[in-house]
């Protein structure tokens, strides 16, 4: 008899089939959520090690590996994944402040706008902001926090660094509409940007996740800090272990077929895991389970009418997506999932003053709200996507963005928000 752990692994093949249907927007949300949770469970099995010493050794190896990398990689690709869409899309999906990061729901009745403001107010409190200070917002996005600070503290001078001329134009338009003269926006790649100025407070919201070499990054940022400056960092994380978002396209040849060597590695890996878990099954049983799971997921998705040969599906999906690398490929190239304590290992130039954790349920609810707004505005969004991605690809990208919001919600909502979450750090200059 094949055990449930083997059956779960057979979902891998089913997932690839579902992703092919995803492009046609044929996969029900319930299926997407179920498969996402399965992939998250798999990630947890990989991340949690049998003992505390092994867990610590793995963390330290990760820390050392980051030191061998540049500050950031694939910056152009990461930029295009989120910012090639016009601001009009994000106005329809995000809250009024266009805060493209976790919000903070203080009670069950909070609206998304309430939660945006609540989180930004929390930033101000934890960063110890005061009127009259000079503020640097590193990775300011559409300026939600820069504009909030500029309005709240009229005597502060706020400098924001973003990586998009579209974002800069939007923020400057908001400054004109709100008669704000205390905001300056710089378009730059933070990994390469240098300047001689220094600030009283530096704030970074969900920018570190796009970086790699935190030692070099924090050293750079420390040069922009005055002697009594504070650095506040908000990042999403896993509570115990870090990992990289990696795209495994190297496993495939130029036609999208699995390379024979890689295929053999995958087979050996699956059998090794099965043996480690005390699972006994024949190759025929394994194939039977895979086939059954594919059929079941297809039935769940209501895809019986999709006239696509399985061989065609496999070739197309293998070329375009490899299970949980889908998020990496389309939305988070070059990304890092820090652990909650990761930045504590990079205190050569800064020293931690305080450290907080926020339940992942806040981010889960944030993303659910984005999804609701996208669905509500889908007729307005479609022409935006047709113009951006091409008319023939609009349906695919509508499905992709919806799936992205679902995946974010499921990630941070997993285990009631106690696996993936948000961390806040406060550092002083050494």
Automatic annotation (TrEMBL):
Q: Which UniProt keywords apply?
A: Methyltransferase, S-adenosyl-L-methionine, Transferase
Domain of life of the source: Eukaryota
Q: Which Pfam families match?
A: CMAS
Recall the GO molecular function terms of this protein's record.
methyltransferase activity
Q: Which InterPro entries match?
A: SAM-dependent_MTases_sf (IPR029063)
Gene3D superfamilies cross-referenced by the UniProt entry: Vaccinia Virus protein VP39 (3.40.50.150)
Kindly indicate whether the keyword Transmembrane belongs to this entry.
Answer: no
A GO biological process of this protein is:
methylation
Q: Give the family, as the similarity comment puts it.
A: Belongs to the CFA/CMAS family.
Checking PANTHER family in the record gives: PTHR43832, S-ADENOSYL-L-METHIONINE-DEPENDENT METHYLTRANSFERASES SUPERFAMILY PROTEIN
Q: What's the protein here called?
A: Coclaurine N-methyltransferase
Tell me which species this is from: Paspalum notatum var. saurae
């Amino acid at each position: 008899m094949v055990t449930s752990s083997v059956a779960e692994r057979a979902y891998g093949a089913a997932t690839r089939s579902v992703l092919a249907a995803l492009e046609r927007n044929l996969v029900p949300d319930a299926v997407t959520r179920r498969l996402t949770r399965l992939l998250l469970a798999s990630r947890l099995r990989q991340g949690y090690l049998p003992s505390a010493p092994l867990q610590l050794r793995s963390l330290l190896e990760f820390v050392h590996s980051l030191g061998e990398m540049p500050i950031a990689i694939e910056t152009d690709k990461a930029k295009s994944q989120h910012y090639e869409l016009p601001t009009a899309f994000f106005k329809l999906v995000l809250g009024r402040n266009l805060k493209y990061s976790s919000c903070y729901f203080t009670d069950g009745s909070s609206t998304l706008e309430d939660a945006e403001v609540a989180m930004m107010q929390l930033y101000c409190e934890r960063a110890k902001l005061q009127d009259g200070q000079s503020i640097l917002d590193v990775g300011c996005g559409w300026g939600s926090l820069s504009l909030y600070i500029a309005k709240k503290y009229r005597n502060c001078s706020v400098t924001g660094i973003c990586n998009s001329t579209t974002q800069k134009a939007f923020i400057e338009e908001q400054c004109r509409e709100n008669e704000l003269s205390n905001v300056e926006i710089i378009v730059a790649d933070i990994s390469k940007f240098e300047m001689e100025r220094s600030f009283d407070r530096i704030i970074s919201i969900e920018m570190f996740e796009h970086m790699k070499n935190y030692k070099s990054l924090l050293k750079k940022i420390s040069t922009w800090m005055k002697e009594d400056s504070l650095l506040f960092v908000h990042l999403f994380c896993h509570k115990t272990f870090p990992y990289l978002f990696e795209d495994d396209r190297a496993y495939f040849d130029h036609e999208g077929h699995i390379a024979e060597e890689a295929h053999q590695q995958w087979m050996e890996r699956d059998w090794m895991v099965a043996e480690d878990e005390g699972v006994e099954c024949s190759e025929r049983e394994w194939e039977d389970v895979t086939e059954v799971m594919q059929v079941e997921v297809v039935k769940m998705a209501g895809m019986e009418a999709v006239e696509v040969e399985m061989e065609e599906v496999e070739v197309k999906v293998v070329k375009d997506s490899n299970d949980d690398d889908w998020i990496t490929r389309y939305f988070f190239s070059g990304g890092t999932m820090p652990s909650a304590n990761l930045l504590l290992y990079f205190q050569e130039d800064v020293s931690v003053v305080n450290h907080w954790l926020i339940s992942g349920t806040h981010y889960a609810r944030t993303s659910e709200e984005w999804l609701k707004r996208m669905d509500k505005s889908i007729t307005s969004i479609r022409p935006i996507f047709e113009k951006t991605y091409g008319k023939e690809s609009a349906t695919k990208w509508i499905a992709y963005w919806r799936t992205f919001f679902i995946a974010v919600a499921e990630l941070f909502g997993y285990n009631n928000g106690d696996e993936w979450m948000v961390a806040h750090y406060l550092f002083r200059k050494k």
